[in-house]
Amino acid sequence: LTGWIQSASDTSIIWDLVVVRSYSTTDTRTNVSDTVDIDVLLEYEFDDSYVDDGTVQINSILAIYQGSGIWRISESQSSVQSITYDTVSCLDNSFNITNVNQNSQSEEIIWDRILVTSYDVVDDHVNIDDVVNIDVTLTYEYDSVSVVDGAVTINGVTAAHLGAGVWRIVQTRASIQSVTYNSVVCSGNLNDIAVVNQNSLSQEVIWDQIVVQSYAVLDNRVSVDDNVSIDFVLHYGYDDSPVLDGSVSINAIDADHQGSGVWRINDTRSSVQLVDYDTVSCSGNTHGITNVDQ
Fold it and tell me: Which of 76, 265, 291, 293 sits in a 20 to 30 Å window from 150, CA-based?
């Protein structure tokens, strides 16, 4: 072989691939509908130089270059779920390297909310001025773990944690009324979850009393030793329904129910006198109401 001149002693070829060095995120557990940034650091494995151009996708979602080898996607989910980000693809970079070493790297993001699982009261129909404990049980919807910390309000009233995810408010009312408890608000818990699924649950509590609507006698001036029937009509103040059961007395004399909320006592006197019948007491009825508006 003559006339051939070697201009270089050798040539170099680099077989390379892109390596996923790490994932990072602003939050690994967040509220449904919140947006989370998921970053991945990409380098060429041969010389640890940054992958700073081309097209990068994470879980098939187009990523935007942030600098220093970091590529970002921003994700939001409208339902409770977990997504693991673990698949990076690359193309059209300076070296046209498309082979990616996932490097066993991944990032799990949980989109979550708090679930109202139940309300509970000992009695939902009580006397005015009675104190009622309203309990609500709260869990994280993703994994059913109890909500045990942070701040919780029910209908704007600060609740106290009793344990095992049960939160309580204590309520009373001085007048006849119904209150529906159906709005739970949460903040500051371990997972910083503030979105609450009210779960279409609620608890109604009625504060009530019995109302003496009227008295009736056939004759209000009678002979000594005459027997007189005194009737009085009792209704519940909240819904005007008649008091049909339980024990009723007037002026400490036991009364018998005549029907439709009409109660009767029979009384007599052996001497001349005036008697006012004006003190009704009630107990043991369906709703357990003992407070009487005379």
Answer: 76
Structure tokens at 67: 């600098």
Question: Does the predicted model carry a pTM greater than 0.70?
Answer: yes
CA–CA dist 19, 45 (Å, integer): 6
Q: How far apart are CA 193 and CA 141, in angstroms?
A: 10
- Domain 114-206: assigned CATH number: 2.60.40.10
- Terminal Cα distance for the chain, rounded: 130
Collapsing DSSP to helix, strand or coil, 57 comes out as strand
CA quadruple 73, 77, 83, 89: dihedral, nearest 10: -30
Nearest to 155 by CA among 130, 125, 132, 180: 180
One CATH from 1.10.287, 2.60.40, 1.10.10, 1.20.1090 for 210-293: 2.60.40
Q: What is the pLDDT of residue 58?
A: 98
Instruction: Sort 270 into a burial class: Cβ within 10 Å, 0-12 / 13-18 / 19+.
Output: exposed
Domain ranges of the chain: 18-112, 114-206, 210-293
Q: Do 94 and 16 form a contact (C-beta atoms < 8 A)?
A: no
Q: Using CA atoms, how far apart are residues 138 and 161, in angstroms rounded to an integer?
A: 10
CA atoms within 13 A on the CB side of 73: 19
CA distance 21 to 44: 10
With residues binned 3-state (H G I as helix, E B as strand, rest as coil), the percentages for the chain, rounded to 5, are 0, 50, 50
Calculate the CA 173 to chain-centre distance.
23
Paired sense of beta strands 29-31 and 107-112, if any: parallel
Q: What is the pLDDT of residue 5?
A: 57
Give residue-wise pLDDT tens across range 201-228. Answer: 999 999 999 999 999 998 999 999 999 9
